[in-house]
Amino acid sequence: MEDIKLFNRWSFEGIVVNDPGLKLYINLKPVIIPKSGGKYTQKQFHKSKMNIVERFANKMMVDGHRGRKHLLTSGRNTGKTQTIFNIIKDVFEEIEKKTKENPLKIFVGAVENASLREEITSYQMGGTMIRKAVITSPQRRVDKALTIITQSSYRRSFGKKISMADALVDEIINAYKNDATKSEAIKEKERIEREAGGAR
Fold first, then answer.
1. Roughly what angle, to the nearest 10 degrees, separates helices 81-99 and 52-61?
2. CB 12 within 8 A of CB 4
3. What pLDDT is recorded for position 42?
4. Where are the domains of the chain?
5. Are 171 and 153 in contact (CB under 8 A)?
6. C-alpha dist (Å) from residue 16 to 28, 75, 127, 171
7. pTM assigned to the model
8. Contact 17, 112 (CB under 8 A)
């Protein structure tokens, strides 16, 4: 399995998930091409059986949401698997140049840092809406982290001179450094957790 590398370039060997709550939900099983073709869709918690890079690619194909409205677009990337893989390759190459480390390690660290631990839910009691802090499930933590990283990068590059790959490189590196001043994912995570703390 040590010979299997992502896109025949980056090894999965030695990459570990440090957050004990996410160990079962960030899949680092070695693959060359992160595409399972819906192999796990009929199984419970199927997303957690997919490689984390495949989940990232899937998030990049469903973009532009803010709430329930499609306010932004990816430039018609939806369903364009090869286009998405080319962007991911460019992102990982640039991360490797900038950090001199395995980009998979940087990416996994960024997802861990951007995974929020609690959030707010609302429910109605009588005629009043009550907001209450709840613990976020591990699978949702990973989903939300990938969503925020992807969509904040689309927002940053949409209609601008910066490319999607460059926006993702900056976002992933800053999330890995846990820098809330430069990373939208870390900033959003801290905002939600702060609101949840006030609703306890």
1. 120
2. yes
3. 81
4. 5-198
5. yes
6. 8, 34, 48, 21
7. 0.87
8. yes
Terminal Cα distance for the chain, rounded = 46
Pairing of strands 10-11, 5-6: antiparallel
Q: Running along the chain, 200 residues long, what does each successive block of 10 average in pLDDT? A: 81 89 90 86 83 90 63 62 90 93 94 90 85 88 91 81 90 92 88 84
Within a 13 Å sphere around the CA of 118, how many CA atoms are in the beta-carbon half? 14
> Three-class SS string for 39-106?
CCCCCCCHHHHCEHHHHHHHHHHCCCEECCEECCCCCCCCCCHHHHHHHHHHHHHHHHHHHCCCHHHH
What superfamily would CATH give domain 5-198? Ribosomal protein S7/S5 (1.10.455.10)
